[in-house]
Design goal:
Oligomer: single chain
Order of helices and strands: EEEEHEHHEHEEEEEEEHHEEH
Distance between the termini: 39 Å
Number of helices: 7
Strand order of the largest sheet: 1-2-3-4-5-6-7
Low-confidence stretches: none
Shape: globular
Number of strands: 15
CATH class: Alpha Beta
Strand content: 15-25%
CATH superfamily: Ribonuclease Z/Hydroxyacylglutathione hydrolase-like
């Protein structure tokens, strides 16, 4: 595991050289919020990092319900029984293994590794604009129907799950990058993903942190280019 720090954010990257899977510890005055739960073996390293920081993990927020983002959720909940777990109301269904589409959703099939054995039930079902400490919830569907991002209201840092990827070259979810194609292959709806990417760019984030790849400071130009590339790619199909 590799740790990178920027202001209030600690990026924990598992398998950073081969298949980087990131989760994030966000520092508050007296506690930490964990964004995403990594891989099944990630729990011990996450807890050890929190202990080194010297603050308890009070919240676990899931950007979406794919296996590489919820892998150690049950182990973390067993070790931290008082932690509050949050996910969007929509992806709470995926967390239970329910892949049926809702009536008002585009008919694209839900893709990616949907968990089948997660026992932890969320304490909070998130909506756009909810606050968890300093983090504001921003709905960002596309990769999954209920994907969210988190904007740190103190500094503009944006933790965007798989709405963008940075490994293999920055791209909107759904745009295939041959050197790291996995987020694209796991994307539910490309047009919805583009719409959400525009919404996130309009937040004017100071830093972009995602599920796969390094953090980017001053990311607006890169986000804009990725959105243009995604729009052109979709228009040719």
């Amino acid at each position: 595991m590799k740790i990178n720090k920027n202001d209030y954010i600690f990026q924990l990257s598992f398998m950073p050289r081969v298949f980087p899977v990131n989760c994030y510890l966000i520092e508050e005055t007296d506690r930490l919020t964990l964004i995403d739960a990594g891989l099944p073996y990630s729990a011990k390293s996450i807890i050890k990092t929190a202990q080194k920081i010297g603050k308890p993990i009070a919240n676990i927020v899931l950007t979406h319900a794919h296996n590489d983002h919820v892998g150690s959720l049950d182990a973390l909940k067993a070790s931290l029984p008082n932690v509050q777990v949050s996910i969007s109301a929509r992806d709470a269904l995926l967390l239970k293994g329910d892949t049926k589409l809702l009536e008002d959703e585009p008919s694209s099939p839900i893709r990616g590794g949907i968990p089948k054995k997660i026992q932890t039930k969320p304490d909070i079902l998130l909506k756009d604009g909810n606050l968890i400490g300093s983090l504001e919830v921003v709905t960002a569907p596309g990769h999954t129907p209920g994907s969210i991002a988190l904007l740190d209201t103190r500094n503009g840092n944006l933790i965007a799950g798989d709405a963008f990827q940075i490994r293999g070259g920055i791209a909107v979810s759904g745009v295939l990058k041959p050197s790291f194609p996995f987020p694209a292959l796991a994307t539910w709806n490309k047009q919805v993903a583009i719409d959400s990417a525009k919404k996130l760019m309009d937040l004017n984030p100071s830093l972009l942190a995602v599920g796969h790849g390094q953090m980017i400071e001053k990311p607006i130009q890169a986000m804009m280019q990725a959105i243009d590339d995604a729009s052109r790619s979709l228009a040719t199909k």
